[in-house]
Design brief:
Length: about 325
């Protein structure tokens, strides 16, 4: 009898602990739901919790470890372009599905889902604006849209942006982040590499400035074309930059690559990029570079001796 009472007491005690643990987990879930409302951000590198408003004020750079969190195209534009100066161009361009491509689902369905989820029609935004009062043509790639892959619309929008910049004699800045060419468009995607490169060559011949900003990650066909054609190439700290993936290269070479392989720091050491600039200093750096490389006016003032006529007294 005593043993039965003891067992019932032990069981009730265990039930009490189980209910307490369950209610505690419920409260924890409730707290996590309240915290996960966008008020706080946990750094994926050092684990420090930051108030999202403060993190955004620091350009989405962790104040503890300096980790550069990925940002979308709208946030990039807000960080770089002066208030009320942004004028988007070619917003009407939309991707199509000329190859009727299908893998696990139709390419056209993927495009529609991306647009509904993100409010973006493709992986780049282009426009004209000012950086500290200096005019600039800016293209911003967005990794959220199919990994920032370069399809026909990305190529067309960037080409038109560069051509407008050449006509207006504006410098061009492109924020690069991409997994490479968009396989769903096949050869049409690969053609964009040559098209953008040709537009940049005409821009260069006009003696105008082009600065690509390499962010994490910049890979594939983007790296193999316009990302590496800049007059001054800038990278963000710790950004992954390369053509083929690390695993593919290791399998091909059958040897282990260094830990810092394909990082911005490694590329700077080997001369592939010109500087590594923290995002908090990027706008200031771009403004200084653009100011130092202002284009020469196309119409030169006539020199003095071509406009002077000698008087008869002076002629004697």
């Amino acid at each position: 009898m005593a043993n039965n009472e003891e067992s019932r007491g032990l069981k009730s005690l265990l039930d009490w602990f189980a209910n307490r643990r369950k209610s505690g987990s419920t409260n924890l879930e409730r707290q996590e739901r309240e915290i996960a409302d966008g008020l706080w951000h946990k750094c994926p590198k050092c684990g420090v919790l930051s108030y999202t408003k403060d993190l955004r004020a620091n350009q989405m750079v962790c104040v503890e470890c300096g980790h550069h969190n990925r940002v979308d195209s709208d946030e990039r534009i807000r960080q770089l372009i002066d208030n009320n100066t942004w004028r988007p161009i070619d917003e009407h361009l939309r991707p199509t599905d000329p190859l009727q491509f299908r893998d696990r689902k139709l390419y056209s369905d993927r495009l529609r889902e991306m647009e509904e989820k993100l409010g973006l029609v493709d992986a780049v935004k282009t426009g004209l604006g000012e950086i500290n009062g200096l005019p600039v043509a800016l293209g911003v790639m967005d990794f959220r849209f199919m990994g920032g892959s370069m399809g026909s619309v990305v190529g067309e929008k960037l080409t038109r942006l560069i051509e407008q910049a050449t006509q207006r004699r504006y410098p061009v800045v492109i924020i690069c982040t991409s997994g490479g060419a968009r396989m769903q468009e096949g050869m049409l995607s690969l053609m964009q590499m040559a098209k953008i490169s040709a537009a940049l060559e005409r821009h260069r011949q006009a003696k105008l400035l082009y600065i690509p900003i390499l962010t994490n990650p910049t890979t594939g066909g983007v790296t193999a074309s316009f990302a590496m054609l800049g007059d001054i190439i800038i990278a963000e700290p710790k950004a992954t930059i390369g053509f083929a993936g690390r695993r593919v290269i290791e399998q091909t070479l059958r040897e282990k690559l260094p830990e810092d392989f394909q990082t911005a720091e490694d590329l700077l050491k080997h001369g592939f990029v010109d500087d590594i600039v923290s995002r908090t200093q990027l706008k200031k750096t771009l403004a200084q570079l653009i100011a130092l490389h202002q284009p020469i006016p196309t119409t030169h003032p006539m020199v003095l001796w071509e406009t002077m006529s000698l008087s008869p007294t002076a002629a004697e």
